[in-house]
Design brief:
Structural class of chain A: alpha+beta
Shape of chain A: globular
Helix content of chain A: 25-40%
Number of strands of chain B: 5
CATH superfamily of the largest domain in chain B: Beta-grasp domain
Number of domains of chain A: 3
Largest sheet of chain B: 5 strands, mixed
Helix content of chain B: 25-40%
Shape of chain B: globular
Distance between the termini of chain B: 47 Å
Largest interface: A-B, 55 and 54 residues
CATH topology of the largest domain in chain B: Ubiquitin-like (UB roll)
Radius of gyration of chain A: 28 Å
Number of domains of chain B: 2
Distance between the termini of chain A: 70 Å
Oligomer: heterodimer
CATH topology of the largest domain in chain A: Aldehyde Oxidoreductase, domain 4
Strand order of the largest sheet of chain A: 3-5-1-12-9-10-11
């Protein structure tokens, strides 16, 4: 659009033209001159010693350029994959952090653990050769269940990690919680499972390594949410390539959801192999391979209790969680079920005492790390299920018990008993609005109509708060972060007044090219179509921590806002000179600098021209050029929140749960582009619905094989499974971000699992069902109903 | 094997090994990377193209089977590459895409459907799109796009 498009508008997305015309540039689309193709040989055993690896036959096959094993990489001095976050246990000792070689050495620890890498002229030749490698595995007993892994005598994933316990972590005041329970009129208790999920962005992971022997420069193209962090982790810790000789490019990336925010072994292997063979090496993950090599999400088992007084006011909460790490620590693995989980157990409530202990456990499964929401959906599920259990047991209306315990709007900023201070919010307003929008008053009639049709109908609430906008670096450092969590932006004004923004976040569906352009268009008064956003290339963008944790607008947008302000500051100085006025008399607005109270003005393009052709310019006091950079480190997390209502109908014949309606009211702070925010909420809700109703990463307890390892077995939400959602925002402004934004990427995923399961339990309450584990699949529901019916018949 | 077919309106002749999948021919040999591969079990629909006007998962069809056919990929939806096809325009207008990876397959599937459904209901669209997986949008705006795109495709053709 050839005009200014500001904050609050909904222009069509800039990025869409290339995507709808098939001109996206994903890693798998990239072809490099002389490129060879790689294939991994992955372990078929969940746990085994690696004996001899015979690569001779594979290496002799036609077209094969090399076969590499973990021993080859170790002999070359290649390091292990680093962990970006170190947590400390309740005993004051650091977590156990065993080595994580890019290709397995000594043992394989999960089905899918990479053992060897073949490079060949064609993909077919590489795959055929990988199959020809003979590995002398000596299978060991495997353990995939966390409780079993903690049991004395269990197989050990790492010989030097006793009891498979990575860390025994806690947060909160246990004594205060004990006192609260001692005086409680009622205690609600619940044991629940937060099911293992497999993120499955639609674009499978891919990586291309390249080495230029002339310059000594390495390049990695990768499907990453944070190319600068990959450069730092891989260059410094794994391959020992200096940062200035390593370029990491993450071009168009087809969805991330956390799955692509880790430094993966394959990235290091292709880059290293490219150096060894002096040719570009490309690897593209197949979907089935992704199921056993992309980091998984969630996988908690929790026992929780809520103490209440006789009026249903929350007095204290006690939570004990087992959190699965899988066979190695992934980049942020140990941070997710601890720092991103326990501080959210206060929810939107005034619970005065909370204690959470988390046992972080190794098992013979794919490593577990962040998946959209990352710790916060798990916390919300615990809180909101417990609240429903308490409401049912005490006979209090489910909306009423929430209202009774909510933090009042006037109590913000609000210090919770679990570390964090919420800056802003009005949970009551969200709840009241969603009750109205979801027509909760009309539910009894709808339930009756369903009953007449032989169906069970239920309605479920969920409220939530999340900590996002990751993250204030100092606080994160105290919690174990090994890096900073600021963001950076450069606003490059061209001599003709157009603008290129270089930003350290990464756009893989979130619409940053549009939202960020709106911010610049709004601030500088430059037409929307004259602002382009560049990201995803460490040779172009100064630095950045990437995109995850709903941080891009909150932290990256703040850096962009700050850099734009610096441009305005300099533009005013230039304009003051050109207009022969005092700087304090020059006002910059609507793309023009004018002398207050006069019609004397210079356009932004004229100012830019003067900055780059400085013939009439204050060269004594001001540098030529108009380009400014800002780094922004947030002072606090942001705390989006909201209230959701799900309505389900259950067919007793089949056990199929149909999501009949879904309504969400979210507080995301200032909305820059309402169309994009709505899209983020929609997608987030359905990912949470997927967890609640469909998705489950299932391991066979004996063999350690992943049983849900393809789209045939792992049930992704599809268009015909879902209703039309009603979503709206009901926002308070964030008190500490420059534009009042809070972030919206994870809201839906955090709020929806509890709302859906609360609705399922509500539907089945007449049968005496008190809890349903996720996913509420037809088989599980059918069995629950049958058992409940048998139990009722027996009474 | 030598095959010849019409690809996005142009006569194309290639020599392909018989085991080559249509999607491999399009992406790896002919450089049409708008057609995507999102799975290996014919479930996701990112690779949908048109063969003689009907939507087909190109990961599930041998290239040699396209001999003598007319194949259209996402690159052929808009003949000049600048003016968008009504379905492309609808996806853009209705925010029917986020990361863009499933989008070509979604649109190719949708245009086949819309050709015979000028005014589909939401339920009809959802049922038709069962074979195309999207992880980003929750489908709501895709359904909206398909309904809008279908209407736009048939604009002016109503009796």
């Amino acid at each position: 659009m050839a005009e200014v498009v500001g904050i609050g508008a909904a222009p069509r997305r800039k990025e869409d033209f290339r995507f709808v015309t098939g001109r996206g540039n994903y890693v798998a689309d990239i072809v490099r001159p002389g490129m060879a193709f790689g294939a991994f040989l992955r372990s078929v055993h969940a746990h085994a010693e690696i004996g001899a690896v015979d690569t001779a036959a594979a290496a002799a096959m036609p077209g094969v350029r090399a076969v590499f094993t973990g021993a080859d990489m170790a002999a070359d001095g290649v390091g292990g994959l680093p962990v970006g976050w170190g947590i400390v246990g309740r005993d004051g000792l650091p977590m156990k952090e065993p080595p994580h070689p890019a290709l397995a050495v000594g043992k394989v620890r999960y089905v899918g653990d990479a053992v060897a890498f073949v490079v060949a002229d064609t993909l077919e030749a590489a795959r055929a050769a990988a199959e020809a490698i003979v590995v002398d595995y000596r299978p060991l007993p495997a353990v995939v269940d966390m409780a079993a892994a903690l049991t004395p005598g269990s197989p050990l994933v790492f010989d030097d990690v006793p009891g498979n316990l990575c860390c025994d972590w806690e947060l909160g005041d246990a004594i205060a919680v004990d006192k609260a329970f001692a005086k409680a009129a009622h205690v609600a208790r619940l044991k629940l499972v937060n099911n293992r999920l497999i993120g499955n962005p639609m674009e499978p992971r891919a990586a291309i390594g390249e080495y230029n022997a002339g310059t000594g420069q390495y390049t990695l193209w990768t499907t990453s949410q944070f190319p600068h962090v990959v450069r730092l982790l891989m260059g410094e810790f794994v391959l020992h390539i200096p940062q200035h000789r390593l370029r990491v490019v993450a071009p168009d990336v087809g969805g991330g959801f956390g799955v692509k925010q880790f430094h993966y072994a394959e990235e290091a292997v292709v880059t290293w192999a490219a150096g060894k063979l002096a040719c570009p090496v490309k690897w593209v993950c197949e979907r089935s391979e992704g199921f056993i090599s992309d980091a998984h999400g969630r996988d908690h088992v929790t026992e929780a209790a809520l103490a209440l007084d006789a009026e249903g006011r929350f007095l204290g909460m006690k939570v004990e969680t087992l959190a699965n790490m899988g066979g190695y620590l992934s980049t942020f693995g140990p941070n997710i079920p601890t720092n991103l989980y326990a501080p959210l157990l206060s929810g939107v409530y005034t619970t005065p005492a909370i204690h959470c202990s988390v046992k972080v456990v190794f098992t013979n499964t794919v490593p577990v790390d962040a998946y959209r929401g990352a710790g916060r959906p798990e916390a919300t599920f615990v809180v909101e299920r417990l609240v429903d259990v308490a409401a049912i047991e005490m006979g209090i209306d489910k909306a009423e018990i929430r209202r009774r315990n909510m933090i009042p709007a006037e109590a913000y900023p609000y210090q919770t008993p679990v570390l964090v201070e919420y800056d802003s919010g009005n949970p009551r307003a969200c709840l009241d609005r969603v009750v109205e929008l979801a027509d909760v008053a009309g539910f009894p009639a709808r339930r009756e109509a369903s009953a007449k049709a032989g169906k069970y109908r239920g309605l479920g609430f969920s409220t939530y708060v999340e900590a996002c906008g990751l993250a204030p670096s100092r606080l994160a450092g105290q919690l174990g972060a090994r890096g900073g969590l600021y963001e950076s932006a450069t606003v490059r004004v061209h001599p003709t007044g157009q603008v290129t923004v270089l930003i350290g976040t990464h756009n893989h569906g979130q619409g940053h090219e549009t939202t960020f352009a709106q911010i610049v268009s709004d601030k500088l008064g430059v037409p929307f179509d004259q602002v382009d956003i560049v990201f995803g290339d460490t040779d172009k963008v100064q630095f950045g921590m990437g995109t995850y944790g709903s941080r891009s607008l909150v932290v990256g947008g703040a850096a962009l806002s700050k850099a734009s302000d610096k441009v305005i500051l300099k533009a005013r100085k230039i304009a003051a000179h050109l207009l022969e006025a005092a700087e304090q008399d020059v006002v910059f607005e609507n793309g023009k600098a004018s002398v207050a109270g006069t019609d004397r003005a210079k356009t932004f393009a004229e100012i830019a021209g003067a900055a780059y052709v400085p013939h009439n310019y204050p060269l004594e006091t001001l540098e030529p050029g108009l380009e400014e950079q800002a780094y922004y480190d947030p002072v606090n997390f942001t705390y989006p929140g909201g209230a959701h209502v799900a309505e389900v109908e259950i067919d007793p014949e089949t056990g199929v749960v149909t999501l009949a309606a879904y309504t969400a009211v979210d507080d995301v702070g200032t909305v820059i582009n309402p169309m994009i925010v709505e899209g983020q909420i929609h997608g987030g809700i359905i990912q949470g619905v997927g967890q609640a109703l469909f998705e489950h990463g299932v391991y066979d307890p004996d063999s350690g094989q992943l049983l849900s390892g393809s789209f045939m077995d792992y049930c992704m939400p599809r268009a015909d499974d879902l209703p039309k959602m009603t979503t709206t925002t009901q926002s308070t402004q964030c008190a500490h971000t420059p534009m009042g934004v809070k972030g919206c990427g994870e809201c839906g995923t955090i709020g929806s699992p509890a709302a859906v399961i609360n609705a399922v339990v509500d539907a089945l309450a007449p049968l005496g069902v008190k809890h349903v584990d996720m996913p509420a699949s037809p088989g599980r529901i059918w069995h629950l109903m049958r058992n409940a019916g048998l139990a009722q018949a027996a009474e | 094997m030598d095959i010849s077919f019409t690809l996005n309106g142009r006569e194309t002749a290639v020599d392909v090994p018989p085991a080559t999948l249509l999607v491999e021919l399009l992406r790896e040999r002919l450089g049409l990377t708008g057609t995507h591969v999102g799975c290996d079990t014919s479930q996701c629909g990112a690779c949908v193209v048109h063969v003689d006007g009907r939507s087909v998962k190109s990961c599930t069809m041998l290239a040699v089977s396209a001999d003598g056919c007319a194949v259209t990929t996402v690159e052929g939806l808009s003949p000049d590459g600048r003016t968008l096809h009504p379905m492309q325009q609808a996806f853009r207008d209705c925010h029917g895409l986020q990361c863009g990876f499933c989008t070509p397959g979604m649109m190719m599937s949708a245009t086949d459907f819309a050709a015979s459904h000028p005014a589909p209901t939401e339920a009809e669209v959802r049922h038709w799109l069962e074979g195309n997986i999207c992880r980003c949008t929750g489908y709501q705006n895709i359904v909206k796009s398909v309904i809008a795109g279908a209407a736009a495709m048939h604009q002016g053709t109503e009796a």
